[in-house]
Design brief:
By secondary structure, this protein is mostly beta strands. A hairpin with a 5-residue loop joins strand 5 and strand 6. About 11% of the residues have low confidence. The strands form 2 sheets. A 4-stranded antiparallel beta sheet has the order 1-4-7-2, with no helix packed on it. Strands 3-6-5 form a 3-stranded antiparallel beta sheet, with no helix packed on it. The radius of gyration is 17 Å and the shape is elongated.
């Protein structure tokens, strides 16, 4: 009985898992960028897209939050900049045959 319940919980977790990215402490900064990144799908193809944000030099990034709205197996990674910098570069990669839809927010220090 316990093994069956555990197996069901693991299966449900695997079915709804997605690859969100949360870096730093978003609640400690001011949100300067909020955008929904949406890229259509191509059958049997993997989509890769790069996204760049650059702000003023005195505003350092303290948090990045990128949430997968499709709850797919798509991934997102920081390729340049990020925490402590005034810029960030993100690379998103979809599953084969699916699109990309991420809710992206960037938080910075006031810096004044």
């Amino acid at each position: 009985m316990k093994v069956t319940i555990l197996l069901v919980l693991i299966t449900q977790t695997w079915l709804v898992s997605s690859y969100d990215l949360t870096v730093g402490h978003p609640q400690q900064g001011f949100m300067v960028k909020e955008e929904v990144l949406n890229y259509n799908y191509f059958p049997f193809m993997i989509r890769e897209k790069d996204y760049m944000y650059s702000g003023p030099a005195y505003q350092k990034i303290v948090g990045i939050e990128v949430l997968d709205n499709l709850h797919s197996r798509a991934t997102v990674v920081v390729t340049a900049g990020g925490l402590g910098h005034s810029f960030v570069s993100l690379r998103m990669r979809s599953e084969r045959g699916t699109g990309l839809e991420y809710a992206m927010r960037i938080f910075v220090t006031n810096g004044l």
